[in-house]
Amino acid sequence: MIITPLLGEAWSAMRANRTRSFLTMLGMIIGVAAVVLMLAFGRGAQDNINDSIARMGSNLLIILSGTTTSGGLRMGMGSSPTLSLDDAKAIAELPTIAHASPVTSGLAQLIYGSNNWSTQVTGVMPDYLSVRNWLVVEGVAFGEADVRAGTQVCLLGQTAAENLFGSTNPVGKTLRIKQMPFLVVGLLERKGQSMEGRNQDDVVLVPVTTAQRRLFGASFPGSVQHIMAQAVSTELAGQAQEDITVLLRQRHRITDQGLANKQDDFTVRNLSELAKTAAATTETFSLLLGAIASISLLVGGIGIMNIMLVSVTERTREIGIRLAVGARRRDITTQFLIESAIISVFGCLIGIVVGMGGAWLGQVLFGLNAVITGTSVLLSLLVAGGIGIFFGLYPARKAAQLNPIDALRQ
Known about the structure:
13 helices, two-stranded antiparallel ribbon, single chain, elongated
């Protein structure tokens, strides 16, 4: 095939000017490495957000109680106890809801032996663990019988367990919450920080009835601060939000007619939509970083074009000889295109290696999460090859259009 000798000629021409060829590649190396790095760190940031969302819970809905007005001052959402245990049970029976749990919480001092720790004590139903996708790694979770009886049992988060028990397994031990004894029946898996930076492991879970009767009380019997629910699927999260709104309006006797169009005494928040927005924002940011890094690829392509134009000028007599002995113009075009493509592809391969090395260093030295995918590597390779051919086309056509007689006079 004619491509084989042309490849050999292109390689020989590059070897004859090693330094110049390497400097030409350098633009592509830097450009590809920048693209790979930006895409890797952008994908890593997106994965971090997805992990945070997964740790928070999937298809999550939060129902907040209403507001109160005192002395002309309107308090924030959750300041009025308008939600109850029965509301949570009714929400759990909706066809678009997989699980639901009421939540009531407060700060309390925990004591075990000579150790003490102030943390968030949260009263929940057993379904709370399913809503939050939270596993018990040691021991067992409390059940419905504990909720009905209001037993003094608890599940410890990892941070609370470490500060009270150190490396000792807390399951089966008894600690005191507000001077009342609580048996530790389980240890929760580590969740890490939430999207807002809160330590999710610094928590103690107790039966909601125990929290109401023995720890924090309730404004009226059965009232809770808020309710957390999990939709059956992401696609049905919006419908679940509407179903909850309709149900609570019926239960709280809120209608569009009468009572001067009374406003809802609750708020339903769809965290799935917030999660989608955060993921979309991160993805856009990643693409923006990749686009900015791609500018260096463009600069590298211009460098290839400049060097190839210099090469055409230097080899004008050689081109004239080839044309005089019968070489076709497309052969000349192909030869110079191959040279520019080789420079581009070799620069791209080296740039991919440099980019992977930079991503690894970023992880080791700075703790950044970098994810390099086959798609980003293939995309960089194709773009770099395309840029080499595109910017090599003009010098190649200029070489092929030389008049053999004029070229031989050089």
